[in-house]
């Protein structure tokens, strides 16, 4: 499958199967699109004659070049033969967990999917050390022979339960040695309580840290206020900068959310970078259609333009001034194998979320949706609801018609089932706005890669 597209006035083509990326001139782009319409075969002469403004010899030179690339296998390459049974040759093994340290928060973000931390339960509570240990024991046991295990300390706001963060970190490090595992810890925080002591501990013990900040002061204060309504920008900015300075070369992301209220989100990315962050992720909000902050269909052209603006900005920066934008990081040469790319994050099969009460859900964004309750880590033994697990084990791109014929299938892995559920009521549904945004981000990522290669 070949996808031909344009970003910032340049023309490109991607061969989906090989990851082969081509920068084209306008004539090559037009002729290649005719090849795409002809199923990878030379178009009829009548189709080629439609490019009458170009010299006849130039058109056929382009045809010759395209057919050389086809013969070399870098355009219209055959699809890889994917066997459904090979996705889980043994059985799915849970190897990643979002561990909720508390269902409470010290901010009141307007778009919070967790309803300010209580996950729509009306019940605010904190993870106990005993339940936390049971969660760690559960994932160590469930991971089987896998050595690498990932645990994200999440919330609510996990720093509100700091003593348990410290104790569970020690327990994870102890179990890593005893069980021969490599337990990699991440913490996701809004940074309000991120003082020197916590920063140093995280830097000493955590593989990654995700720091929530939406961008410019008016954006942050508008959507991420404190319970008393006051803005959080100043304290969050100062704490994040202090943390980054201490983090040095350690992995981190400053992660924001953009809404209909800041469709010029490229400015927020630039603002975060101007503060000193080198690793940034900004995501589109997913919210109810009737909210004033949710993205609407008519907003998509502006959003697409913003991604192009951001990509252009990144392409023009000198190497010392560069930063990483999560959604523009793309590996065409290696990266995960086709099976990994086509099954995605492993929601409900290789990845789960655990609440402060010990309840197990397929992911953090489906927490509290009782139809997806899988079990509880405090049970002895833990018995998972196979009916729920089975529903998620079937979320494979080859089994989704719309996704299997899409050029972006190896990069979006069929999209987010939680977003699909909240948008359509079905984990097998297609969250169309998210799908279109994802494809535009991929096009910009590919363009940026091509531009940097060209400059080199």
Q: By helix and strand content, what is the structural category?
A: alpha/beta
- What string, H for helix and E for strand, traces the elements in order? EEEHHHEHEHEHEHHEHEHEHEEEHHHHH
Assign an overall shape.
globular
- Strand order, sheet with most strands: 10-9-8-7-6-5-4-11-12-13
Helix tally equals: 16
Largest sheet: 10 strands, mixed
The fraction of residues in strands falls at: 5-15%
What is the average of the pLDDT values?
91
- First-to-last CA distance: 28 Å
The proportion of residues forming helix, as a percent range, comes to 25-40%
Poorly predicted ranges: none
* C-alpha-based Rg, rounded: 24 Å
Strand tally is 13
Q: What features would you describe in this structure?
A:
- By secondary structure, the chain is an alpha/beta fold.
- It is 39% helix and 14% strand.
- The chain has helices at residues 26-37, 45-49, 56-72, 129-142, 162-179, 196-205, 217-223, 233-247, 265-274, 300-316, 338-343, 386-393, 401-404, 409-412, 417-424, 432-455; strands at 2-7, 10-15, 20-24, 96-100, 148-154, 182-189, 208-212, 253-258, 279-284, 324-325, 351-354, 359-361, 375-376.
- The protein has a ten-stranded mixed sheet with strand order 10-9-8-7-6-5-4-11-12-13, with helices on one face. A three-stranded antiparallel sheet has the order 1-2-3, sandwiched between helices.
- Helix 5 links the parallel strand 5 and strand 6 (182-189).
- Helix 4 (129-142) runs parallel beside helix 5 and helix 10 (300-316) packs parallel to helix 16 (432-455).
């Amino acid at each position: 499958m070949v996808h031909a597209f344009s970003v910032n006035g340049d023309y490109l083509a991607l061969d989906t199967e090989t990851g082969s990326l081509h920068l084209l001139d306008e004539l090559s782009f037009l002729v290649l699109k005719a090849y795409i319409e002809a199923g990878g075969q030379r178009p009829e002469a009548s189709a080629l004659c439609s490019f009458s403004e170009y010299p006849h010899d130039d058109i056929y030179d382009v045809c010759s070049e395209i057919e050389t690339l086809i013969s070399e296998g870098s355009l219209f390459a055959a699809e890889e033969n994917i066997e459904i049974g090979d996705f889980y040759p043994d059985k799915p093994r849970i190897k990643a967990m979002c561990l909720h340290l508390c269902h409470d928060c010290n901010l009141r973000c307007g778009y919070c999917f967790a309803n300010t931390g209580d996950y729509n339960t009306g019940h605010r509570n904190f993870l106990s050390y005993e339940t936390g240990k049971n969660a760690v024991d559960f994932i160590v046991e469930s991971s089987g022979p896998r050595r690498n295990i990932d645990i994200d300390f999440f919330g609510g706001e996990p720093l509100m339960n700091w003593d348990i963060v410290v104790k569970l970190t020690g327990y994870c490090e102890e179990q890593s040695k005893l069980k021969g595992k490599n337990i990699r810890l991440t913490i996701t925080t809004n940074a309000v309580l991120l003082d020197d002591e916590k920063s140093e501990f995280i830097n000493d013990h955590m593989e990654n840290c995700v720091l929530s900040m939406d961008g410019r002061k008016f954006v942050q204060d508008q959507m991420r206020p404190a319970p008393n309504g006051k803005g959080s920008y100043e304290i969050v900015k100062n704490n994040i900068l202090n943390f980054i300075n201490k983090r040095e070369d350690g992995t981190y992301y400053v992660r924001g959310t953009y809404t209909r209220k800041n469709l010029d989100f490229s400015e927020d990315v630039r603002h975060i970078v101007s503060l000193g962050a080198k690793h940034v992720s900004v995501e589109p909000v997913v919210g109810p259609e009737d909210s004033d902050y949710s993205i609407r269909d008519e907003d998509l052209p502006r959003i697409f333009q913003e991604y192009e603006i951001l990509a252009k900005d990144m392409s023009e920066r000198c190497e010392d001034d560069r930063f990483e934008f999560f959604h523009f990081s793309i590996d065409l040469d290696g990266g995960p194998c086709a099976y990994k790319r086509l099954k995605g994050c492993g929601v409900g099969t290789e990845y789960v979320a655990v609440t402060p009460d010990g309840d197990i859900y397929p992911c953090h964004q489906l927490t509290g949706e009782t139809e997806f309750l899988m079990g509880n880590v405090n049970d002895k033994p833990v018995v998972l609801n196979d009916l729920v697990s089975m529903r998620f084990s079937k979320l494979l791109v080859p089994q989704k018609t719309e996704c299997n014929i899409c050029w972006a299938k190896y990069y979006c892995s069929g999209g987010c089932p939680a977003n699909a559920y909240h948008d359509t009521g079905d984990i097998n549904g297609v969250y169309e706005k998210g799908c279109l945004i994802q494809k535009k981000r991929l096009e910009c990522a590919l363009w940026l890669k091509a531009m940097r290669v060209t400059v080199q």
